Amino acid sequence: MKLSWIVATHKPEVLAENLLATMPPLVDLADMGDELIIMHGRSSITRAYDHGQKLARGKVCCYIQHDVQILDFPRLRQSLLDSTVGAGMVGIIGGIAPTMPWLIHATQWYGSVRDPRVPTGQHPSTGDWGPGRGPLVLDGLLLATRQEVAWDTDWPGWHGYDHDACKQMIARGLDNVCVAGGKDMVVHNTKTGFGITSTPAFIESVNYYQAKWGSP
Questions:
Q1: 43-79 pLDDT tens trace
Q2: Could you give the CA distance from residue 7 to residue 5 in angstroms, rounded to a whole number?
Q3: Is 0.85 surpassed by the pTM of this model?
Q4: 15, 38 in Cβ contact below 8 A?
Q5: With 50 as the cut, is the pLDDT of residue 122 above it?
Q6: What is the spatial distance between Cα 71 and Cα 75, in angstroms, rounded to a whole number?
Q7: Residue 77 Cα distances to 27, 58, 86, 90, 135, angstroms
Q8: Band of the pLDDT at 80, cuts 50, 70, 90?
Q9: Which of 187, 102, 86, 192 is nearest to 138 (CA)?
């Protein structure tokens, strides 16, 4: 078993229209040594991922959001298999951000992704900032690793868990890696607006992260 694709969903129609519609059929995944683990209706994304990790048999676990569309599966798969060797977390977009949320506080951006909310090049997330390695925080739309992740099942809701997972790897002395060419491999077909950082659910996650890690 090479790669376990783990996805949490509370909206099966979103999963069907995006990730499932753009991944190879299950029989083809099995032929290449992969598996797909779908966690339905969990109370938080960390609880879903924690359970999914316990079921996974792959050398690499890829935690991927249900509203992601994959444009080039062979390239993405090989990139994750290669980049996770000796690394902490691997993703396709992120930055160096000492505080949460990274989207606002990043001092350096890495990677790229297609995002239908804004025209290409008119927001940092739709630029192409090239690959990176080091104390990066990677966006939770896709996180892959060969490491055991201590998914915090007390984490509130569906935001900020990517900061926590990446911080764990940094604390272990492992580099997080942002691969090149994300915008050619993945679309984040999200309906969530950029203004989510002002919502109570997001603020709750920020407060939890700061209390846990002592972040300013």
A1: 899 999 999 999 999 999 999 999 999 999 999 999 9
A2: 7
A3: yes
A4: yes
A5: no
A6: 9
A7: 16, 13, 17, 12, 23
A8: very high
A9: 102
Task: Return the structure tokens found at 11.
Answer: 């909206």
3-state SS, the chain, equals CCEEEEEEECCHHHHHHCHHHHCCCHHHHHHCCEEEEEEECCCCHHHHHHHHHHHCCCCEEEEECCCEEECCHHHHHHHHHHHCCCCCCEECEEEECCCCCHHHHCCEEEECCECCCCCCCCCHHHCCCCCEEECCEECCCEEEECCCCCCCCCCCCCCCHHHHHHHHHHHCCCCEEECCCHHHCEEECCCCCHHHHHCHHHHHHHHHHHHHHCCC
Question: How many other CB atoms sit within 10 Å of the CB of residue 195?
Answer: 8
Decide: 59 and 2 in contact? Cβ < 8 Å: yes
Cβ distance 18 to 69 under 8 Å?
yes
Please give the Cα distance from 44 to 61 (Å, whole number). 18
Which token pair is 112?
């790229």
